[in-house]
Amino acid sequence: MFAPPWFSKLYNAGIYQYKWKLTLPKIMSPSFYHTELSKALSEQAFGLARFDVYGGSSPHEATASVTLLEGRTILITLTARGYQLDENQIFESIEGLLQAVSTAYEGKRREALFSRLRSLS
User: How far is residue 79's CA from residue 60's CA, in Å, rounded to a whole number?
Assistant: First the structure.
């Protein structure tokens, strides 16, 4: 096998002795899912009665208790797979999940959209 001359010089100079430190990108930080779930629910607060994101359950997921406008409370978990309502229901977006479980949310979302459209004209 052929190695370029510069590689041989590096190897002979002892570069192989260095220990490389693996650093994870910010997206993989332990608070990523917590931050993302908090932001997503904050953006949809107009259509929710209340929400509380639980702190630090796992670096790979975040869970929130969400009280819908109808008064029902649900648990939403955000993982790498998406927004999870229960073991079998996974949604790509928080909007899709909330539309599936709350007719009052859909009404408030429509009102907010029309309000923004009226302000543009």
Answer: 6
pLDDT value of residue 109 = 92
**Spatial separation of the C-alpha atoms in residues 64 and 70, rounded to whole Å:** 17
Q: Which of 28-37, 40-49, 83-92 is predicted least confidently?
A: 28-37
**What pLDDT shows up at residue 82?**
95
Phi, psi values for residue 23, rounded to 5°: -115, 135
Judged by DSSP in three states, 63 sits in strand
- Contact call for residues 65 and 26 (beta carbons, < 8 A): no
β-pair partners for 90? 84
- Other CB atoms within a 10 A radius of the CB of residue 21 amount to 5
Pick the residue with more confidence: 60 or 13?
60
Q: What do you get for the CA distance between the two ends of the chain, in Å? A: 70
Q: How many CB atoms lie within 10 A of CB 119?
A: 7
Give the three-state DSSP class for 72: coil
Rounded Cα distance between 5 and 8, Å, is 5
Strands 62-68 and 48-53: antiparallel
